[in-house]
Structure formats: C-alpha cells, structure tokens
Amino acid sequence: xxxxxxxxxxxxxxxxxxxxxxxxxxxxxxxxxxxxxxxxxxxxxxxxxxxxxxxxxxxxxxxxxxxxxxxxxxxxxxxxxxxxxxxxxxxxxxxxxxxxxxxxxxxxxxxxxxxxxxxxxxxxxxxxxxxxxxxxxxxxxxxxxxxxxxxxxxxxxxxxxxxxxxxxxxxxxxxxxxxxxxxxxxxxxxxxxxxxxxxxxxxxxxxxxxxxxxxxxxxxxxxxxxxxxxxxxxxxxxxxxxxxxxxxxxxxxxxxxxxxxxxxxxxxxxxxxxxxxxxxxxxxxxxxxxxxxxxxxxxxxxxxxxxxxxxxxxxxxxxxxxxxxxxxxxxxxxxxxxxxxxxxxxxxxxxxxxxxxxxxxxxxxxxxxxxxxxxxxxxxxxxxxxxxxxxxxxx
Amino acid sequence: xxxxxxxxxxxxxxxxxxxxxxxxxxxxxxxxxxxxxxxxxxxxxxxxxxxxxxxxxxxxxxxxxxxxxxxxxxxxxxxxxxxxxxxxxxxxxxxxxxxxxxxxxxxxxxxxxxxxxxxxxxxxxxxxxxxxxxxxxxxxxxxxxxxxxxxxxxxxxxxxxxxxxxxxxxxxxxxxxxxxxxxxxxxxxxxxxxxxxxxxxxxxxxxxxxxxxxxxxxxxxxxxxxxxxxxxxxxxxxxxxxxxxxxxxxxxxxxxxxxxxxxxxxxxxxxxxxxxxxxxxxxxxxxxxxxxxxxxxxxxxxxxxxxxxxxxxxxxxxxxxxxxxxxxxxxxxxxxxxxxxxxxxxxxxxxxxxxxxxxxxxxxxxxxxxxxxxxxxxxxxxxxxxxxxxxxxxxxxxxxxxxxxxxxxxxxxxxxxxxxxxxxxxxxxxxxxxxxxxxxxxxxxxxxxxxxxxxxxxxxxxxxxxxxxxxxxxxxxx
Lengths: 395, 478
What we know:
The structure holds 2 protein chains of 2 kinds.
Chain A: E1 2-4, H1 9-20, E2 26-29, E3 45-48, E4 55-59, E5 64-68, H2 73-82, E6 85-86, H3 95-98, H4 106-111, H5 119-122, H6 125-128, E7 129-135, E8 141-145, H7 157-161, E9 170-177, E10 179-180, E11 184-191, H8 195-206, E12 214-218, E13 228-235, H9 237-250, E14 258-260, H10 263-273, E15 284-289, H11 295-305, E16 310-314, E17 319-324, H12 332-339, E18 345-350, H13 353-358, H14 367-380
Parallel strand pairs in A: 1-3, 2-3
Antiparallel strand pairs in A: 4-5, 5-9, 6-10, 7-8, 7-9, 11-13, 11-14, 12-13, 15-17, 15-18, 16-17
Helix pairs in contact in A: 11-12
Chain B: H1 11-15, H2 17-25, E1 33-34, H3 37-40, E2 57-59, H4 64-77, E3 81-84, E4 101-104, E5 111-115, E6 120-124, H5 129-136, E7 141-142, H6 155-161, H7 168-171, H8 174-177, E8 178-184, E9 190-194, H9 205-209, E10 218-225, E11 227-228, E12 233-240, H10 243-255, E13 262-267, H11 268-278, E14 288-295, H12 298-314, E15 319-322, H13 326-337, H14 339-346, E16 348-351, H15 361-374, E17 378-384, E18 389-396, H16 401-420, H17 439-442, H18 445-458
Parallel strand pairs in B: 2-4, 3-4
Antiparallel strand pairs in B: 1-2, 5-6, 6-10, 7-11, 8-9, 8-10, 12-14, 12-15, 13-14, 13-17, 16-18, 17-18
Helix pairs in contact in B: 10-12, 11-13, 11-14, 13-14, 15-16
C-alpha cells in the first residue's frame, strides 16, 4: 500500500503522471471519513489531500471562501463563523453513520456534493461550489469556474466534479459562495402526525411565504415515542417572531406547535443532518430521493415487504433515510421497485463491502446516460486510475 | 463589423441542400419546415444583430420525437445544427451559419404540469420565462430566474445559457432552479436527466447540460422549481454622490448579514437614459443609483429597510426614495429592465456581461471609463451589484464601421479587465460567438481541452452549435 501526500498541486500532477503508464489505480482521500461511500474499489495506492491545506481566499463582503482541498471542514466553518458567515448547505458529517474517524475536509464536501437539511431551500453543495482546481487523469492541473458567483464561461465542469466521488480527478482547491448566519433560529414542532399528514404539513409550510429553511418528519420511536414534524425558520429575530406566529396560524389544523430554540434544537437538527439515528447500528442504510408527496407511499410499500425497516424524512419528504437489516441485497430489489414507479431513486449509503460490491450502490442509469457517464469518466481519466468503479462499473 | 470569424461553409453540404431539405421534409409536417429565403431571414441572427448568416433550412418541431428525428438525420448527414429558443441571445448563441439547419423550439410552448404540492412545474422548452411565472402567479408562486428579456426568452434558451437576472442574489440562476430535463442527443436518443426530486443519481449531467449553449444536445422539456413569493416586495432607490460610495454601501450591507433580493447599480449615463424612457422618478443629481429590493411583510420590509438606510447613510447616500405603491415599484423596475431598450433609442450599443469580484468595483468602473474614453466612445453602466455581474453598454454608431470596430475592441478590453481582476468573461449571457475568441484569456489550453473532451462525448464531429464557445482553432475531438 503506497500513500502519496503531495504538498503542492505540481507534486500531485507528477504523482498522477507517474502512475499513468502502469495504470495503477488510486484511491483518493481527504480526512478518510467517507471512504465507505460508493462501491468498494480495489486499489493499492492512495492519493491524499492531507498535505494541501489552508484557506486561500476569504472575502466576507463578497461572500466567497476558497481553500485547498485538504483543509479541515471545521477550520473553514470556524473561519466563517468568526465573521458571522456559514456554508449555505449545512454539510452532513458522515462519521457517526459510517463509524469513521478523522477530520472531514472541504474537498470531500465538494467531491461528494455533501449537503444537509438546508438543501431544500438554500441548494446543495453543488449549488454553492463556484470554482475548483483539480488534477485530471493526464496529470494536468485544470480549473473550472472561479471566485465569482455568476459565471457561465464555458462548460460547467464544477457541477460534474461535485458529487463525482473522486472518479474524475484529484481536487486541489475549492471555492464556495457563503451566506450570513441568521440572527436567530427557531424550530416549530408538531407531535403525533402520520407520515402522510407530516408531508402535507410541510408542503403547506414550504409553500407559504414564510420560508422554512428545513423541514423534517421523524416517525414514532425514531426520536420520541410520538412522531415529530419540524419546520425550521432562520431570520432576523423580529421576523422570526412574526413568521412563527403566522405559520402556527396557517397550520392550525395540525395543533399548536412547540417552539424549540438553542442547543437542544441544534442537536436535534445535527442528528437529522447526520442520520445519527442509524449510528452504531448494524442496519444497512439507504437514501431515497423522491417527490415529497410520493415519499410516504413509497415508504409504505417498502414497510409492507420489509417490516423491520425504520426511516425518517428530511427535505420536506424529498429525502428519506431508511435503515433495515443488512442481509442479502439489503432490501435493494424491494426499495428500488418501490421508488421507481414514482420516478425516484435510491442510494445505498452504508452496508458491508460484500453487499456494496454486488448491489448497485447508486441507482442504475438508463443506457444513454450510462454511456455518457462512462465517456465523461474517460474524458477526464483515460487510463482509469481514479477510484475506478466507485460509482458504477467503468465510472 | 466583421471581427468575429465564422467557419467557412462546407461546399459539399451546400451542394446537397435540396437532398437535405427533402430528407427533412420526410421527418416533419410541411408547416414545420422553412426553406424559402424570405421566411428563413428572421432566423439569420439573434439579439447580437451585427452578425447574421442565413441558415440552409429552419425546422420548428412540435414534439420531442420530431426533434429526435431531425437531429438523428442531421447527425447522419454530417449537417451542422444550430438550436434556437426565442433568439434573444446577446452573445450570438443562436446565430446560424450557411451550412446549418436551425432547430427552433418555439412551437413547443406548452406548460405540461404544475405541481404546487411538490413545488415543481414541467414545461416545454419553448415556453417563455415569464409565462411560467404567469401560470403560477395566481397561486402566489413564481419562477425565480428573471433575465431582462423574460417576456420573450424561452426556458430552453435559459437552460442553454444558464440565465440569471436581477433577483438571483437571493434565488440563484437557472442551474439552481432546474431539476430535470428531457435531452435529445445527436444520435436521436431521448434521455431523461434528473426529475422532480432534488438530486439525481450518478454524475451531475444536468449541471453540465445547463449552460452548455446547445453544444451537447437539444433540451425539449424541463422540470423547474417554483417558489412561493414573499408577502410583499419593495424596491427602494438610493442615490450616491460617487460610484465608490455606492460600491462600499453594497459591501457593507452584505457584511451586515443582509441579503436583499436584488441590488442593482446604475451610473449617471444609465440613470439619464432610463429615466428619459421610463419616468421612474430616478434622482438626476447623483452619480450612482442603487435599486435595492426587500421582501416580506410590511413590518419586515420596514425593519430591513431601516437597517439598509442606516448603512447607506454611513456611506454618504444623498437620496432615498421608497416606492409608495405597486405602480411606483413597477416603474422602478421598468426603468431598470428596459435599460437595454432605452439605450437603443439614443444610440447603437453593445452590451457586455463580465463578472468581477465586488471588491474590485471602484477600480473596474474607473478603468472601464478610461478604456471606453480611450476609444473616443461613451459607456453607460447597469449591473447586478450584489454579485459583481457588470453590463457596460458601449454606445456607438453602427453605420460607422470604424466606430463599430472601436466599440467591439473596447468591449473586449473590458472583458479582459474582468478576467485580470479575478472575474470572468460572462456572468449570464453566455459565450456564444461574441466571447469565443477571448476564452484563451480565461482558460489555459489544458482547461479548454478538458472542456472540449467532455463536449466530444456528446458530439465528436462538432455538429451541434459548432461555431460557438470554443475558439475555431485548436479544437479537440476526443
């Protein structure tokens, strides 16, 4: 096992060039907290961004931050917080779910398009990622995007790289747009609603002018004995008072909500963000992506076939986190059959490597899209050295 | 003007014109095929009217299947294809070439589905931008990207150029508001990318398609997010004695944690032009004007405005003028959104579209003035101040070829300046033919080759909108 830790982009280019001829596959890691995502890959060499650290650009008045890929996410967040700003998309921390240790990096947030509950309103990591530098599979340093948030110059390779899990190149530097932190955050909590009522409540709230920034539903026995339906508002303090009042009125049919604020609320949202309900369990864990209103129906179909499953809803219902016994195909056939009629899809986030090696981790793609994806992989990485097969066979 | 080169038409294709037109006639109904020179004429240019080329034929399909049949045929015949939405591109993104077939989506103008519960709409590519908002407005919803041409421009064109608008400071640009597309590829295959859910499996091909300027395929349908509008919105005018003070006020507002939905900047020449046209009540005794829009309930808007006014006063604001009625608010926006049209009434102009880091604003404004004056011309500036997306309008007389060339040269110098200070060539209009030859200023050969290799995955033979985006020399096919 060889570990390459370049400290400059030029070194990273040289390392890549040195393995092209032998087509030696490389794993790519930052803090190594998310190596369990995707299909297991067979590599004997690892290229780490741990030697590429440091914030390279921070202009609070321009709402932009740039950092070398190996910079700890915590350092980026601390730097922003010191100036009252934050990453808009509330990136998930995978350590609890995957049982991993180490320090998550800003590069991995980009490479995995890692978002959290705010995604429903503020966009995903890919929506805030405005520039990247990476080393492609030819050993060339490439840039796309830049440091300004409006930029349509040339093909948007930034989006392709976001969520490519290292299969297209080795990120050396990433630039994100940022937002001011809200003055105050309040979560409204309704108890005891069914999955269907929970979706309807959140749809009404999200379709109101009061801009909930996050909307989740935790069925009974996930967090409490009863179900919890949550809408989170972030704003100036006087607006919060007004908007929580208006929302409670608008949603009066569902009962009077509790108002949750401060550390207890923040801790609850961190658990949702990190899918921590499945931390330290042996379950296989899936993410289902659906239209919010379809989610309870798809979940009911899965529950009927696999009664041991547990789940909760984020993104107003558009994201379902689902856990079930890690046996056989980890429920893949049932789950995909349940979501496909709704046009949704499912990703296997956590399962033993043996299952991830046989069950497609990412939803299988239609033939033309698979062909295009493989073509894009080759266009970046002709020798197939970066994380071969991590997303799909050939990608 | 003749500075921008077009590819030399392929004589072999021109010689086969009759045969190609006959082939197209077998694929679409007669009313969908335009062949006479007179009827082709409206398709010879777009909003970059200084350049025009008469296409070989124009096809206006009504269905995705027809688009697929025509694309497949053109691919097999080796005939270039120029996709067209509403033809409002300021960058020449829809300008054809003599050996090309234009495929226009204007007949595909139906809104297919509105789903308020899931806050998405499914529309055909020829639907105009404003029609989407028009359809959902009664329920209090809107489609966020709002380019100035929104009355005419199409969703398909917006996707091609990743269009922005005045309100993207808060709501993002097209790529942040599109969830799925139906894409027809050059071989005629029809692909669904994304959907009505928030993330798609696999590589983010949707993100690649948005802004690809018709070079990867033709989008025929899209699923877009619709958002609930705020309870109210109020634009307010802030007049400053200098552009520097206006720029500093913008930075200070953002620094105070306030993100207004829009912050638009106009300099004195632009104020004069727009006021003469729209009678919006713009102050005439200031050097720079900010239109800042806030949203929310009346009380919320009052509170937010009070914060903004305090900051503006700290930066020497001379005039603060709130809109007191919906009519006044509409007039304020009418002035801004008609800036290009109003300018066109007093002179010919070219509209540039670079983006700069906002901290560079005072320097760039000064340098732009010097550059344009150096060519003996005038410039009016309107732009999106919150995100640094500049739209200098360079005024000239198009009947004077020397002056026209100077205007184009001044524009190119300004775009190079944008790149030099850390910005980019285009914030929302796209590269088209206009900025194609400047791409080497922003990107090095490896960057461009990587983009072209990705392009080649979709179109190895450079048939899709081929004269755009990438310099004509040094093209990479795989």
